[in-house]
Amino acid sequence: MTTAQAPSGSKEVPAGNWLGWATSTDHKRIGLLTVATSLVLLLVMGVFALIMRGQLAQPELDLVLPHTYSQLFTLHGSGMIYLVITPFALGMGVYLVPLQIGAPAIAAPRTTLLGYWLYVCGAVLVLVSLAAANGSASSGWFSYPPLADSDFSPGVGPDLWIVGVVLSTTGMILMGWTVLWTALRKRTQGMTMLRMPVFTWSMVASCLMVIGSFPSLLAAMALLAAGRADPSVFHANAWNIGYQHLFWFYGHPVVYVMFFPYLGAVAEVLAVFSGRAFFGYKGTVLSLLVFAALSMSVWAHHMFATGQVANDYYSLTSISLLVPAGVEYFAMIGTVLGGRLVFRTPMLFALAFLPQFLIGGLTGIMVGTPVLDYHLTDSYFVVAHLHYVLFAGSAFGLFAAVYFWFPKATGVELGERLGRLHFVLLVIGTNLTFLPMFALGYEGMPRRVVSYAPFDGFSLLNLLASCGAAVLAAGMVVFVVNVLWTLRKRSLGRHVPAPPDPWGAGTLEWATSSPPPATNFTPEYPVPPVRGHAPLLTLREGQGEPDDRATLSGSRG
Amino acid sequence: MTTRQFFGTVFALESALAAFVFAVVAMLVCLAVVRRRAGARRRPSRRLEHTRPEAFYVAVLVAVAAFLVVYTARQNHDEHRAAAHGDPVEVTVTAFQWCWRFDYPQARKPLAVRADCRAGRRPTLVVPTGRPIRFKMASPDVIHSLWVPDLRYKRDIFPHHVNTVTLTVDREGRWIGRCGEFCGDRHHTMDFWLRAVSPAAYDKWLAQHAGAPAGGTPA
């Protein structure tokens, strides 16, 4: 690959023009659009969650009607998974993978752009479905038939929701393909597979799962659509349970698609702010691939309570996941144990990720054990578990990534003080919201209930969780203020421009300017020689060839 | 309760393991944060691999995973074997939007417990202690799930399919039962009572209510 290739179409686009942004085939613009769109949707889904936590703050409240509540948890769950965490993860890949492997552009940029627009159209349809006569989909994010068929969920809202889910998922499949293709085929000279950064590897593993499992969701949605046209489709147990198989064949791997890229981001952040290369690189790469392979064989652990799956087998595959997960933990802890730690905001989020996600992982072993799952499934224990995985884990990785790569993408660092305040509020809010839910589930509170009685004994813990949600909301407000304030400063020209490598990082995206030029690397910012998985670190430490150092310092001016 | 005992044993074991792992990781992270801050002027390590400890660690992980899989599968099988032992009482469970109906096919005359779950009218499922109870469960509409949180057990109830579960309740008492699978807007009101009585009291109850008029709510 040479830097001479310009990404097609990028030259005609005038900077700052919204149409230019909307039609750009520059992977950096598509990536930024994707992550920005998903962050806006994150706020919408957060508002839905706040309404639910308000409703549950006290027993027998009537803040919202039961049917409204059903739509809220359906849209919160499906929105967070289909429209926020997955798209953000793939958007990060679209932005970062070409830069990290020294490519001038993404493979098949128009396909990536199409993927973004499919995602946007899908998101619009999902939100618009709320305005339908009988409301939007209201049978939970996994929408099991026959509850989700047209007999039990009449109206056009659920149909719009299905089309929206199909469009955005198709967009994600397209993005997954182009990111994978880029990593496999567009690497710069010297960038062997085993020199790709940990984040790029986490994207490769994620994209393999996207390609392998996401079409199964399209099949499940097609089956559901058939059942909405003719509900008699679900007058047979085979189709009811068949839908669950198709759904979870997607629905479990997507958990790792929503987790790996954030794990990759955390790994990069931990290494950079420990001042060293990532420890245990090969073991981590191997464990990511093993994890991705195993992830395709665990889906039915969501169905232990159906009494219609081979519990022993799915328990075996699910519990086996602790081996690759343990290897990744070993590598991350090894990195910080041997490092020299600098506590900037990205590092704080990455460090908090370690114990918090661990709670999600360890309780995952519990729900992967049939004899425990019979009690815990579909209770608040599972709600707590999945929020520790996806919020205390992935969302902390997400914010570590935002604070870490923000200067690269925008040319200006986010405010450090507001960042720390955001971090503190998020740590308190996350644990105050989700920790009580373990106890609630253990004591017998089912998920997806709009209310509970005073004598159930759920009142105090629910109140605590709702207070935690308020703290979370305050933290998110701080984050929004930080982003808007920083961007405002930049547009007024009152900012300190970020250097190419503000953190002393190791991977190739930090060798080019902040933000990078259209072709990523130019004669002024050439791709440095690659002799390891943290090439800039190798150069700084003087372990490269004698002439390498000259290349690097020359490029910085 | 038999079921609860299996759940309790495994839950205690896995909680202890989880607490241990969490403590070790939290301690290591704290250690790194305290001792490895930039001010401590240590140079960051350049070491990229520690092959031998890593291999040893993987072996430990594999052993733990193997132990957990085998041990919990055995508990799961023992639980079901223990429950299936003896002469079972049969109860036919019908879960519908949004309440429950319990039929006792072994009663001399038809006996059904029913209610509509509105305004606190919950049906009471009466069972004897010490004898296995075989629940034959089906739904006329959508998927539900029979869950008695104090028994630590739930099982989904499908339309067009009969799920059978055998449980033993080994002490007298009354516990709330719920629907565990979201089944529509009034899912949260779909509760029942499970009342376990001595076998003698159970036989008496059965004789008293057999042939009760349809629509009645015995117990």
UniProtKB/TrEMBL annotation, chain A:
Predominant localisation class: membrane
Family matches, as Gene3D superfamilies: Cytochrome c oxidase-like, subunit I domain
Pfam families given in the database record: COX1
UniProt membrane topology term: Multi-pass membrane protein
Residues annotated as domain Cytochrome oxidase subunit I profile: 12-531
TM regions (residue ranges): 30-52, 72-96, 116-141, 161-184, 196-227, 247-273, 285-304, 316-336, 348-368, 388-406, 418-440, 460-485
Compartments where found: Membrane
Keyword Protein biosynthesis listed: no
Region (Disordered): 532-557
InterPro entries: Cyt_c_oxase-like_su1_dom (IPR023616), Cyt_c_oxase-like_su1_sf (IPR036927), Cyt_C_Oxase_1 (IPR000883), Cyt_c_Oxase_su1_BS (IPR023615)
Job of this protein: Cytochrome c oxidase is the component of the respiratory chain that catalyzes the reduction of oxygen to water. Subunits 1-3 form the functional core of the enzyme complex. CO I is the catalytic subunit of the enzyme. Electrons originating in cytochrome c are transferred via the copper A center of subunit 2 and heme A of subunit 1 to the bimetallic center formed by heme A3 and copper B.
Cited PANTHER family: CYTOCHROME C OXIDASE SUBUNIT 1
Family: Belongs to the heme-copper respiratory oxidase family.
Protein name: Cbb3-type cytochrome c oxidase subunit I
Organism, scientific name: Streptomyces cynarae
Automatic annotation (TrEMBL), chain B:
InterPro entries xrefs: CcO_II (IPR045187), CcO_II-like_C (IPR002429), Copper_CuA (IPR001505), Cupredoxin (IPR008972)
Domain annotation Cytochrome oxidase subunit II copper A binding: ranges: 86-208
Keywords per UniProt: Copper, Electron transport, Membrane, Metal-binding, Transmembrane, Transmembrane helix, Transport
Main subcellular location: membrane
Catalytic activity: 4 Fe(II)-[cytochrome c] + O2 + 8 H(+)(in) = 4 Fe(III)-[cytochrome c] + 2 H2O + 4 H(+)(out)
Location(s) in or outside the cell: Membrane
Pfam families: COX2 (PF00116)
Transmembrane segments: 6-34, 55-73
Family under the similarity heading: Belongs to the cytochrome c oxidase subunit 2 family.
PANTHER family reported in the protein's UniProt record: CYTOCHROME C OXIDASE SUBUNIT 2, CYTOCHROME C OXIDASE, SUBUNIT II
Chain's role: Subunits I and II form the functional core of the enzyme complex. Electrons originating in cytochrome c are transferred via heme a and Cu(A) to the binuclear center formed by heme a3 and Cu(B).
This protein's name: Cytochrome aa3 subunit 2
Annotated organism of origin: Streptomyces cynarae
